[in-house]
Amino acid sequence: MKADTAQELERIPLLVPDIPAPQYLLPWLEKVHAARHYSNFGPLVCELESRFAQQFALPQPQITTVANATLGLELVLQALALAPGSRILVPAFTFVATATAVLRAGHIPVLADVDAHSWLLTPDIARQACVGRQLDAVLAVATFGMPHDMQAWQQFEEETGIPVVIDAAAAYGSQWLQGAQGTLVFSLHATKSLPAIEGGVVVSSRPGLAAKVRQLSNFGINLDAGSGLPLGSLSATGTNAKMSEYHAAVCLASLQIWEQRSLQRKALHADLVAEMDRATGGLLGWQKPGAAGSIQAPALLCAQFPDEAARNQAEQGLTQANITTRRWYQPLLSDMAVLQQRCETLAVPNAQQLSRTLLGLPFFMDITPAQRARVAETVARSARRSGLREAPLATAAL
User: Fold this and answer.
1) Which CATH code of 3.40.50.720, 3.90.1150.10, 3.40.50.300, 3.40.640.10 fits the domain covering 3-17+258-385?
2) pLDDT digits over 241-289, tens only?
3) pTM (2 decimals)?
4) Rounded distance, CA 129 to CA 116, Å?
5) Burial letters for 269-285: b for 16+ Cβ neighbours within 10 Å, e otherwise?
């Protein structure tokens, strides 16, 4: 494609936030205005937490909102009361916030491999990592929203005594406790399937954990008259990580349309995968569901190419066609200089392979048929240029 032609083409973005339209937001914003309560666990935050408690079939004190999922992870690790410098198992293939939350909580990330098909750090990988080394907790990630088998993680906890936390940032609607014990931290960022623009929620069956996170999110101030401490005194060194009423309003509006939008997201994802497979003759590989099932409300589209050269060729072709892409979770945490001196890295061959072959493609609710065709045709053209004509990778739609 000639450069001047590419410049004439409209840019196709990677992601477009799917925030509720003003008519859905207005009734909730009017409630905020009427109550004149804007932060500090206001009525809409409490209503939102009640909704989450019903969804997860837990008492409301076992749910708490936070300003964002990264702070939620930090405060969950703090609430676990681990010794300073504890060693936390984390996948090498994840967003940087997973590792920085561990570091900011005063602990050491131990970077592990992921499953080659689901792209998850699994209980089996964690068991192997325990051999010959001390681990004090596991912070697994629901990669791109793929849910974990919580029964399997509960069994791991019972066998090892090591607490497990799931960074379920992108997995709202997909990751559930499934009748097991566990702790989940969700993101409500603007690019997630349940957007509050900014926000997070902690769900935990561990007694007292969510309540401790709630206290830590309010600076660590004691508000319990029966605790033996004066009201307003500091019970722990927390931070300000409370969700505002405005963000709760956006989230409550998002909940009103979430079921419909989640079905649309899943159908769109399946259609895009099918279109890419038809255009490339089955060239690409896709993340495969594990024992807990598939992603119910996809937030992005990430394709695996047969090798690094094919990925790079496609990336170049898409850039020339004014199509935005992203190398999700790349470089690996283990390859980031700022982290290398502060983490321990185990053998991560699957993660390394993913980092060489994955490419994020445009995925947003209002993508047009013409845009979809342009992406598929550009990837197919790049495949032909790289000499790839068959499908060495298995495909599986989410």
Assistant:
1) 3.90.1150.10
2) 999 999 999 999 999 999 999 999 999 999 999 999 999 999 999 999 9
3) 0.94
4) 16
5) beebbebbbebbeebbb
